[in-house]
Amino acid sequence: MEELAVMAQQADTGSSSGPLGVLEWLGSHFIGLFTASGKQFVSLVTGILPTLVVLLTAMYAITTFIGEQRVTRAVQWSARWWITRYTIMPILAVLMLTNPMAYSFGRFLPERHKPAFYDSAVSFVHPVTTFFPYANAGELFVWLGVANGVSQLGQSTVPLALRYFLVGIVVIFIRGVVTERITAFMIRRTGRTEVFADFDRQFEAARAEAK
Q1: Rounded distance between C-alpha atoms, residue 177 and residue 117, angstroms
Q2: How confident is the model at residue 13 (pLDDT cuts 50, 70, 90)?
Q3: Could you tell me which of 69, 135, 136, 45 has the C-alpha nearest to residue 96?
């Protein structure tokens, strides 16, 4: 009777038991993985991908209209003061060059300020995805994961995106200032004050030649 019950169950489910059943399970889930990947790819192509392309094209167009030299001068201007060095400068860097090329704007800073700028810029590559997903498309899943929960509750994601973006600016400012202080402390503690002073002189000389 037990054998008949097992056969009846197999007939109902349409699957085998034992080693053959294990192989069938592996086969169905193996192709199922690629099926799910294909569906996800199609959803990206018809969903976020056109938005990324349009945003990226618009940003390149704005940069072209303004002029690359003017954009570069704006970045150099923002590097002068600590309050703009860790707010406007990393924002412009991430928006214009995207991640990871944004860190190359550190070449406009003396050596002692580069660690703080990197810390500030790298901390902004997630908040920027709320309104400018093209800037860090590879890690867009972080914001989409958070926004998906809000969408399932029937709420708009715009208020959350705005708060995430503004808090991101505050955080990168704090991280930049703190890292700059830590860098200055480590320079003094390790006795490299004269070395970085020489770096500063070389930086000023190179900037004077560029003018």
Answers
A1: 9
A2: low
A3: 135
Nearest alpha carbon to residue 103 among 82, 75, 65: 75
The total number of residues shown for the chain amounts to: 211
Tokens describing residue 127: 């908040």
Q: Mark out the alpha helices in the chain (DSSP H runs).
A: 2-13, 18-46, 48-66, 68-78, 82-85, 88-97, 114-122, 140-152, 158-189, 193-210
CB 109 within 8 A of CB 117: yes
Q: Which two tokens stand for residue 34?
A: 């690629």
Answer yes or no: pTM beyond 0.85.
no
- Distance, in Å, from the CA atom of 59 to the CA atom of 52, rounded to the nearest integer, reads 11
Helix (H, G, I), strand (E, B) or coil at 12: helix
Tell me the C-alpha distance between 113 and 129, whole Å. Answer: 25
Spatial separation of the C-alpha atoms in residues 133 and 125, rounded to whole Å: 9
Q: Which of 135, 79, 66, 74 is nearest to 107 (CA)?
A: 79
